[in-house]
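Running co-folding for iron/sulfur cluster.
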Amino acid sequence: MNGSTLAKHSSRAPISLPILVTPGLTDACKRVKKDYGHDEQKGYSMKGLVRIGWLALIVFSLSSGTAHAANPNKDVTNPEACQSCHRGDSAHPMLGLHGGDRYGPTNQAASCADCHGVGESGSLHEAEQTDIVRFTHMSETNNLSTPLAQQNQACLSCHLGTELRTAHWTHDPHANTLTCASCHQLHPSNDPMRGLAKQTQTKQCVDCHSTLPNDIDIFNYSSSGGSP
Amino acid sequence: MSCSRRKFIASGCALVLGTGLANIPLVQSMTINGKRYAMLHDESKCIGCTACMDACRETNLVPEGVSRLEIIRSEPQGEYPDANYSFFRKSCQHCDNPPCVEVCPSGASFRDEETGIVDVNPDKCVGCQYCVAACPYQVRFIHPEKNTPDKCNFCRDTNLAQGKLPACVSACPTQALIFGDANDPASAISQQIATKPTYRNKVPLGTDPQLFRIADRNGDLPS
Ligand code: SF4
Ligand code: SF4
Ligand code: SF4
């Protein structure tokens, strides 16, 4: 992948990131679906399209035809505006440290836009062109999602590399090869990676690494570089 | 070769010695009649997951607090996001010339001539712990329940006795561990040793360790 696709993933050229991890391998490997009604295979369900339509309408009326960031009370930097639609459901609640509980409307330490961006084009919810940052498992990183480097950069703007190393050494060797969301889930009330028992941690390593082809040179592997 | 310590360091003695060692074939049976089991830890494949450690503990009923096998992780080399680590396997090397057996007064520490495996017979042990002190690799410990020395025995009485591979080998998700008969040129381990650059730990001590290693690319080993 070159720099231009990285910066402008609104182009429809497929971004060929290799699939590192089998989906559904562990609970930790399941991501939170944020793109409502969207199915990677089938495109957009009717329900999804209706939702998107409503959202576009609301957003349009709120922003009076200007970009979302124009009005600080009615744009995507206001979590309430986002959560009026993106409330989540029982399977994908908007909770936890990055969701509604602590940093949500009552304590606005982080807004949705701090991580997801505000989008530049104003075509925020036209899903195929959106430049909103989507956090995806490596196996779901395709031409509709945000490139690895951009996803991780959003996380790294708060979580420093040194802190990540202290939290767990495995952050180091995966920094360039996995999206943070490959392991972490941010909107459930608790990230399943937190407080894992030692043996469960080991199981995470084994579950993923035993599916990697044996001839991959893991120490020279860079998913953003295209080929190993 | 007369070579004082000062001269040794200052002159080219090291070079001469190095060249001499290089001529000794790595795979060379000394006293074995049949098989000679050996292990290879491919550090370039190891991811430091410690699944091998867990498997060993479970299979060989090793109590918490002691271990037959440790994977030692180096300090990080480089800065995030480009930092990396090296992993070093610490376990019995099944020396062809084992000092632990040499010093044992009772014959409890022995080397099985059929397989080359160095093991301990707790029934013969008098508890002097000479072997613990004599092992240059510091892999022996006192088993808290048996009160006798214990260490890796290539799963001789557990998995191997049941015709299975050692527990650590089958648990490794990246096939970084290879076990087999180094006397059989067709075995996977002999093939690896013949075709890849391997090293062994503390070879100059003359122990002739049978734990081979493939170095990773990150350089430094933990001291
Ligand atoms: S590594 Fe230590 S315990 Fe194992 S055979 Fe060699 S001297 Fe004995
Ligand atoms: S060969 Fe068996 S005893 Fe030795 S470290 Fe592996 S699992 Fe433990
Ligand atoms: S199981 Fe394999 S990859 Fe994991 S630490 Fe042990 S040797 Fe390394």
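Result summary
The interface with chain B takes residues 152, 161-162, 164-165, 169, 171-173, 175-176, 199, 202, 205-206, 209-210, 212, 214, 217-220 of chain A (CB under 8 Å).
Residues 3-131 of chain A form one domain.
Job closed.
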